[in-house]
Amino acid sequence: MEKLVFVALLFCVLLPESYACFTSNQTHFTRMRIGSRFYQECKCDDPGSEGVKLMWLDPHDQEILPLRPGIESNVYSEWVDEDTYRLFISSLGRSISGAYKCVTVHNGQTYALTYNVEAYDRPYFINTNETQYVVSGKNVTIFCEARSETDPLIIWYKQDGLTKIRDGDKYETSSQGLIIKGVTNDDKGLYRCAASDLKTGEEIIRDIQVEVISVPKITEIVASPDSNVVAGGILEIVCMATGSPHPEYVWRKIPKYSQPIGNHTFPAQYAHWKQEANRITIYDVNENDAGAYECTASNVAGSSSGSINVDVYFMPEITKADSLVAIEGTTVQIVCRSQGLPIPQMSINYLGDEVDERSIVWDVKNISNIEVEFYLTFLRVNRTHDGFYVCNATNFLATDQREINLAVLYPPHFDEKFEEAWGWSGRNTNLSCDNHSSPPANITWNYQGNDLTKEEQTKINNIMADKIHDNPLIIENVSLYGTYQCIANNGFGEDKKIIVLRQGFVPAAINNVTITNVTATSVTFSINGPEFINGPPIKAYKAEYDEAENYNITDIHINRTWSIDRPFRIDRLRPSTVYYIKFAAINDVGDGPWSEVYDFDTLENTNFRSVPLEPVWETDVEEVAAMERKLKWKQEELVDSYNIRLCPMNNGIIEETVCTDKTIEPAAEFQLNDLDSNTTYYLELIAHNSNGSSTPAHIMFTIPAEEERLLSAGALIGISIVVVFFCLVLLDVVLLLWRKQGIIAHCCNKKKKNKREVSLNSRDRKGLLRDNPEPVNDVQKRASNGHREYEYNKTTGVITGKHSAV
């Protein structure tokens, strides 16, 4: 009021004469929404003699001035015309709400038109989503909250705002929204929430789309091909669930084993997982993929979980098989541990001769649901238990094996405590001190001569000093005959062996030979060796024989040698013939002296049919190896069958247990098609007739591996012909392009020449262009001036002349 008085006094001073536009005070009230535009005109009805004098004041009684260039203002005044002054508010807000006055003065008194402008907020929604989900079967709330100057009135509608919802058994309104009881799928649809401000009359509307949803439910979890899968395969697990909206899936692996298996580290399985929605695929399944797989299906309504157990069958793997060292007589245990699924069946086998099982105890113990141990306990181990044992772990998938070496330590032992050895001039003698011991024994030699002088013994001791620990002991001076003692010691004990080295001699003469069988072409003897042998044993006998009529004529006779395990038989003799023969024994020292000469007569061939001769091979070992796959021998007339004995060989030793015997009709060959490749065989062939059997013929051969032929011989020949033909065509094309020669060039030139001759002949109907033209008539004769009627240019092919076209 003080300001109004001041303004009134100021007008009185400045204006010598009073004037007025209106002479009463008036008050108006206006409510407008925040952000609205407000303007009010103040009009001067009675300006007086001095004209219009109006002024606008803001709520703080400050004059509101018109807009000036370059200055922006939300509240300003402006003259509409000479008697109308307007107030303008471009955007109404709470801070500028209040009493705006249009003032004038009359007779020293101020009059004002007051406009109380109040700004208010429009109602607005909070916590109200345009799409809301409700769970089927439950009581749920559709949220709709509003704010305004006063508590708004909320009214609900359904089906595009046409049907008003009232409280009842199905619906109930609350301060937060609309409660729907026992939601069903029929409650899905469009709902309208209308909020009204009773003070301002403002109303706002929000359409809410309600979707009925359901909590997911796992119906089935299926593993393909099966929940029991073999390691290395592919496993698919599918999780099937119901729910609206369609659920999302999360997988979780619950390991079955607390520790990693084999060389895998957990969680190695994630590296080969692939998830596609409700499906997971595991490639190259390994042992660590076993366990429970949990599937969680979730949507906005909730979630549910289910699981499936997966077992991974994997091949046995031996994880422990340690070699052992034991002292003879102690207790020792071999332990073999393996893992696998199903649990492997285990055994431990000895690689060698059977051992005494009376001192052995077996036991099996399951360590876990995938691991098992096998125990082989020796209550009192001995040297026969020394060697390699094979631990086997087997299930339906495969078998794993591991060798275990059991080394039994025991003192040296000689199989023979006494041995006799022979030596002779010109030969080094080896004396063996081989023994059974573990660890290997140290060898010591002693020499005891026969009636040696002190000087000789000293000399021998010096020689032996350098060889005292040798095995074998090599006697280079054969004069050192006598007794040798070998002592073997390894720290667990010692053993001794005596070796007597004697001088060896060749066998004595043979004095007892008997003929046991004579035929027309063969003779068989029984030979008894010398009664006394002062040297190595006899290993063979030899004979020298010839027909009687030739025996004294020459010193060159037929020789035959038999090993002591062969029949002493001579074949291929002449029938009805007298033979002389003598014998000698053979040992390592050499050949003994000849026996006295014996004589025998062969039988006549017409009166006696002899046994067959020993078969003679016509196929050698190299031909068998060259893929012939057959053995051939000479056919003999006196044979009615052949006995064949075939044995595989292993490291040069015949495997007698797997030999096969076969009898065939008289033939000259034997097929080898059914034999194994890369295997050596020993074959024995015996010819047989009614009088007996021949001596065996032997052969050893190896069947090589067959090499695969990529192409047959015919295919190779065909390819060769095609290649040669292609090269000839290529050469002819080169000659055509380079020199215009060759078969192609000749054919092309001949064709062109024929076409050209045909063309010229068709044009030269009168034969004027021929090399030897036929006689012409008077009209065609050459004119007296030498001009020809036609002239042909052989280079260009153009005809010129009197009647030509040129």
Give a short summary of the structure.
It contains six helices and 55 strands. The chain has about 800 residues and is mostly beta strands.
Explain the overall architecture.
The structure is a single chain. With 806 residues, the protein is mostly beta strands. The protein has seven domains: 2-120, Immunoglobulin-like, CATH 2.60.40.10; 124-213, Immunoglobulin-like (Sandwich); 225-314, Immunoglobulin-like (Sandwich), CATH 2.60.40.10; 322-410, Immunoglobulins (Immunoglobulin-like, Sandwich); 414-503, Immunoglobulin-like (Sandwich), CATH 2.60.40; 512-601, Immunoglobulin-like; 621-703, Immunoglobulins (Immunoglobulin-like). 11% of the residues lie in helices and 45% in strands. It has six helices and 55 strands. The strands form 14 sheets. Strands 9, 12, 13, 16, 17, 19, 21 and 22 form an eight-stranded mixed β-sheet that branches. Strands 18, 20, 23, 24, 26, 28 and 29 form a seven-stranded mixed β-sheet that branches. Strands 47, 48, 49, 51, 52 and 53 form a six-stranded antiparallel β-sheet that branches. Strand 4 (75-81) and strand 5 (84-89) form a beta hairpin. It is elongated. The N and C termini lie far apart (133 Å). Residues 1-18, 259-269, 758-766, 771-790 and 802-806 have low confidence and may be disordered.
